[in-house]
Amino acid sequence: MNKEKKYCIGCGVLLQDENMMQEGYTTSIENDICNRCFRMRNYGEYQIITKSNEEYIDILKSVNKTNDLVLYMVDLLNVDKDLNYIRQYIKNKIILVLNKRDVLPKSVKDEKIINYFKDMDLDFQDVIVVSPNKNYNIDELLLMIKKYKTSKNVYVVGHTNVGKSTLINKLMKNYSFNNCFLTMSPLPSTTLNKISIKLSDDLTLIDTPGLVDRGNIVNYVDSSLLKKINPKKEIKPKTYQLKKGQALVIGGLVRIDYLEGNKNSFTVFMSNDLKVERFNMNNNEKLKDLYPKEFDVLFHEDIVISGLGFIKVVEKAKVTVYADKNVLIYTRKSLI
Ligand SMILES: Nc1nc2c(ncn2[C@@H]2O[C@H](COP(=O)(O)OP(=O)(O)OP(=O)(O)O)[C@@H](O)[C@H]2O)c(=O)[nH]1
Ligand SMILES: [Mg+2]
User: Fold this and answer.
1) What is the Å distance from ligand 1's center to 269 Cα?
2) Ligand 1 atom nearest to 132, measured from its CA
3) Which of the listed CATH numbers 2.60.120.230, 3.30.420.140, 3.40.190.10, 3.40.50.300 matches domain 53-213?
4) Does the predicted TM-score (pTM) go above 0.85?
5) Residue-wise pLDDT tens digits, 77-104
6) 110-141 residue pLDDT tens
7) Cβ density class 56-68: b for 16+ within 10 Å, e for less
8) Which residues line ligand 1 (CB under 6 A)?
């Protein structure tokens, strides 16, 4: 008899009860979720799956074949170097959704954040800051969706771990009687396939797996460190007045040597759980075995360490940043 195809309601993978070692395994095809989702939800046991980005790009291309509105989601602590890259794949209308507002200091005004992105010359319809975890601006987002949507379907896209599934779960919880069981986790590549969720007769949200961000530090640290790296609470920025010749080591993961410049202020916007140490750079060899990259930081720029956060530097500075070789590090105009 031909078995009917059934997909996991947590991650979208095709369910199968034949091979325990393969994706989508469940003890009985009667179940609605795969074993991996079951273990993540019930025991917090996370299993890393690395997806190829080709599959993700195929999904984006399929979005491009539609006329549907797209929510392009970005983690505010981990903003991509080039947000317009998404335009290579999709021409749809896009709302830029800046997520995890709750981790940036409350003292910073939303307007300031929004204007920062509006000044970037981005090819998007609109920009909004949200936090589904704190139920922040979710009503406003729904209004924006209604304003711009071009059909019943709205796609949610963005890198892994930015909070796409969390947002859809929250929208469903707030505005729908239909159930929604998307799996969420602190690890990348939780969602594995497109999943359509009907919010109402005229709005269906479509969750997608995220593009794997190879430059993100989460790919190069022990999974026990992930909780420390991902801030749960509002960040308390830590400011250090540095003279040239001084260095900072953050969370045992990154080292910054201040090579040249005047007395300067370095403010670390990263998880409060990461310890910051300051010392004379010539008296301490800590993390010097990591890969060094030199940067000329301009007046009022951030040094972004992908996946970790950023360091706001006030004056011009020449620095060497030591980190895992694969981690993307870049400078940009100060966000805050
Ligand atoms: N601080 C904070 N964390 C959030 C927020 N929304 C989501 N997260 C966290 O971000 C992590 C990833 O959430 P997911 O919803 O699984 O992210 P995703 O984009 O669906 O990830 P993939 O399915 O892997 O592409 C989880 O640890 C969430 O708790 C938020 O508003 N604030
Ligand atoms: Mg997801």
Assistant:
1) 19
2) 31
3) 3.40.50.300
4) yes
5) 999 888 998 999 999 999 999 999 999 9
6) 999 999 999 988 889 999 999 999 999 999 99
7) beebbeebeeeeb
8) 99-100, 102-103, 131-133, 160-166, 184-186, 188-191, 209-210, 232
